[in-house]
Amino acid sequence: MTTTPVPVAKRVPTERTHHGDTVVDEYAWLAAKDDPATIAHLTAENAYAETRTAHLEGLRAELFEETRRRTQETDLSVPTRKDGYWYYTRTVEGQQYGVQCRRAVRDGETAPPISADGAPLDGEEVLLDGNLLAEGHDFFALGAFDVSPDGRWLAYSTDFTGDERFTLRVKDLNTGEVLPDEISDTFYGTAWSTDASALFYVTVDDAWRPNRVWRHAVGTPSSEDVVVHQEDDERFWVGVELTRSERFVVIDIHSKITSEVRVIPAANPTGEPAIVAPRRQGVEYSVEHHGHRFLILHNDGAEDFALAFTSADTPGDWTPLIEHSPGTRLEAVDAFENHLVVSLRSNGLTGLRVLPVGGGDPYDIDFPEPIYSVGLDANPEYRTNEVRLRYTSLVTPDSIYDYDLVNRQMVLRKQKPVRPGPDGRPYDPADYEQHRDWALADDGTQVPISLVRRKGTPRDGSAPCVIYGYGSYESSMDPWFSIARLSLLDRGVVFAVAHIRGGGELGRRWYEQGKLLAKRNTFTDFVACARHLVKAGWTAGDRLVARGASAGGLLMGAVANLAPDAFTGIVAQVPFVDALTSILDPSLPLTVTEWEEWGNPLDDPEVYAYVKSYTPYENVAPVDYPAILAVTSLNDTRVLYHEPAKWIARLRAVAPQGDYLLKTEMGAGHGGPSGRYDAWREEAFINAWILDRLHRA
Predict the structure, then answer these.
(1) Phi-psi category of 492—alpha, beta or left, where left has phi over 0 and alpha has psi -120 to 50?
(2) What Å distances lie between residue 192 and 145, 168, 262, 378, CA to CA?
(3) Which residues cross the membrane (predicted)?
(4) Residue 696's pLDDT band (boundaries 50, 70, 90)?
């Protein structure tokens, strides 16, 4: 078996100078996606990775088969009611993609119809079959799936490359005809007018920033579409949606730290957008329509957000509804005719608070496990006293509940089936146990860690462990269930999630302490969690693999430089590892909008020096690195493929004694392979590599 690293083409290095600092980039040429040498390099890297992992082929097949065997492949989601229809998605054994369907509500039918074996419901109407749409394509993703208020039209959009640029179409659900209306290069987000004559959608600028909201008249050429709002401030991006009440089209305008919302009456789609509240630097707010008022969730003098309202007819001053409570982060509000439901976070856990509209005290919904994740699921109906919840934990499969807001009763509609594993035994959550532990960061901060293991796994330092992290954008890594993870747990692996600063697990302050000039806290927190797992006997340093993706891939590259001795392996998926180069280039997708997260190194020499101090690519050193598996996608528009490609090349050049692999999906985007079987194979590839590093294969 050859172990010769991939030769790198010899090209003239690129130099750049900022704030008196000159940087030589030997591998900048890899950014030329259309250069045959770049494609040849990535292809050679894939071949090298396949050769180096050929001995794991049997284990990969075994892990894939375990995931397939445990998954109910022919399945049906819990139908969601909207007016006179139940909407749901079916999957069929052997098919990669879901089938979007609906069925008319029958007289007296209040509970959602459920097919235990996943078979089609009697009388169903197929709206879209992803498998038919995907024929002839290696990649397929739906962007929009939006049924008009009258139930006649379906706006849907498709992406066949993974670059998240969609072609928008309209289908007549009465006849099955797809209209000639076809709009290319759209982004996520659509909204219908009340009479379904107009469809609003979003497009991007040259830097792939969502910057325009358009209005399309159904049945007319897209060349006649009208720009409703154009955002010229490059820090901001736009989105569009229809309120649950179907009264307003909402245009959301956001930067990382500032918001502005404009509304158009859905019954008057050609009207001018009205500003709910002008943007003020540092003030974030969102709008939900409820009767005569707009509900305003905001951080004006409220670090963890407060809830207020203003008139929907003449928006003005904000009247408090829920005062700010430090440590309780209000994340969203959903309005129904007789109730408001607030999604919140406290003590590191998600929660739901109900506010009856006609009187009565607010109350929180209780859940049984010490570690869990809960949130509202699809709830399209405004006039209802029942809401749909989604609940999960590290040991509890995704569970769909309907909750009666008046009687406070919860009914389990469906829990994701987990079929027997290789031993033939049914899945039993009691065979596994979850824990909450705390690590002590360098500055004395307590950092939470969530862990899951199979019962009987020793806690004497002998168990192997995977530690996962993210830590950016106030995104929280709340507990989630994974069928593929069971294959690790059943082989004696402990799985840990480090809830590090930069995420939102402990409120807005937790996020603020892990961004801009405090970003290094994210990385040192993760190292502290890794060290704690060893000290507390969960694992040993030579039995610990770290894993992260996207901004979590930046985390992986940073901790590889900070503490290479702490891990035996690192998995970095679509990793943001050439952060300084990217943040210095305003022409790249997302760069300018990201300056409020990372800082602007173009204008600020302090930011430049700080980002340079931690960006993985700039800080590769001649040390003994753990084995590294980098996984990326050629068509990724969020973290460009060349970042990990350059990183691996530099690692090989500077620390050639290390074991580094680069695997590139040549026809996918940021989320990796699109089909479920392809995604399972990708996960099996990664988990086989992890088990090999942990010596548990």
Answers:
(1) left
(2) 12, 13, 16, 18
(3) none
(4) low
627 vs 545: CA distance, rounded Å: 9
Report the number of secondary-structure helices (H) and strands (E) in the chain: 12, 38
Contacts of 323 (CB under 8 A, 6+ apart): 302, 306
| Residue 101 CB burial class (10 angstroms; 0-12, 13-18, ≥19) | buried
Answer yes or no: 550 catalytic.
yes
**Tokens at 94, concatenated:** 């052997």
Q: Are domains 36-68+429-694 and 137-283 of this chain identical in fold?
A: no
pLDDT band at 297 (very low <50, low <70, confident <90, very high): very high
In CATH, the number for domain 137-283 is 2.130.10.120
Residue 262 sits at φ, ψ, to 5 deg, of: -125, 145
pLDDT band at 253 (very low <50, low <70, confident <90, very high): very high
The answer to whether the beta carbons of residues 663 and 46 sit under 8 Å apart is yes
Tokens of 55: 């001995």
> 350, 330 in Cβ contact below 8 A?
no
Would you state the structure tokens that stand for residue 339, as one six-digit string? 């109730």
Question: 3-state SS of the chain: helix, strand, coil percent to 5?
Answer: 20, 35, 45
Give the number of other CB atoms < 10 A from CB of residue 214: 20
Determine the pLDDT at residue 2: 39
Quickly tell me which residue has 């993706």 as its tokens.
549
Give residue 360's pLDDT.
85
pLDDT digits (tens, 9 = 90+) for 535-568: 999 999 899 999 999 999 999 999 999 999 999 9
> How far lies 617's CA from each of 222, 326, 553, 580, 622, in Å?
44, 38, 12, 9, 13
pLDDT of res. 3: 54
Tokens of 356: 């009856």
The Cα–Cα gap between 5 and 201 comes to 47
Q: How many Cβ atoms are within 10 Å of 159's Cβ, its own excluded?
A: 20
> Side chain identity at 556, as an amino acid letter?
M
Rounded to whole angstroms, how far apart are CA atoms 107 and 696?
A: 57
Closest CA to 252 of 244, 263, 243: 263
Q: Annotated catalytic, 670? A: yes
Top-level class of domain 36-68+429-694 = alpha beta
Amino acid (1-letter code) at residue 596: E
Dist. CA 69–CA 565, nearest whole Å: 37
Q: Both tokens of residue 515? A: 């961004």
> Catalytic annotation on 184?
no
Closest CA to 546 of 521, 520, 519, 573: 573
DSSP characters for 260-305?
Answer: EEEEEETT-TTSPPEEEE---TT--EEEEEETTEEEEEE-TT-TT-
Q: Output the six-digit token pair for 210.
A: 């969502």
Task: List the domain boundaries for the chain.
Answer: 36-68+429-694, 73-126, 137-283
Q: Which amino acid is located at 493 in the chain? A: V
Angstrom distance (rounded) from CA 460 to CA 194: 63
Q: Are strands 544-549 and 465-468 parallel, antiparallel or unpaired?
A: parallel
Q: What count of other Cβ atoms lies within 10 Å of the Cβ of residue 624?
A: 9
User: Is the Cβ–Cβ distance between 367 and 403 less than 8 Å?
Assistant: no
- Catalytic-labelled residue, pool 225, 304, 525, 636: 636
Choosing from 148, 393, 476, 550, which is the catalytic residue?
550
Q: What single DSSP character describes residue 463?
A: S
Residue with token string 């980002």: 611
Q: Specify the pTM.
A: 0.96
- Of 671, 652, 672, 670, the C-alpha closest to 661 is 652
Q: Find all residues with CB under 8 Å of 553, minimum gap 6, and list them.
A: 572, 573, 574, 575, 576, 577, 630, 639, 644
What is the C-alpha to C-alpha distance for residues 16 and 356, in angstroms, rounded to an integer?
Answer: 59
Residue whose entry in the numeric block shows the structure tokens 């969203």: 332
